Amino acid sequence: MNWDQIEGKWTEMKGKARSSWGELTDDELDQIGGKKDQLVGKLQQKYGLEREEAERRADDWADKQ
Question: Where are the domains of the chain?
Answer without folding.
Answer: 3-64
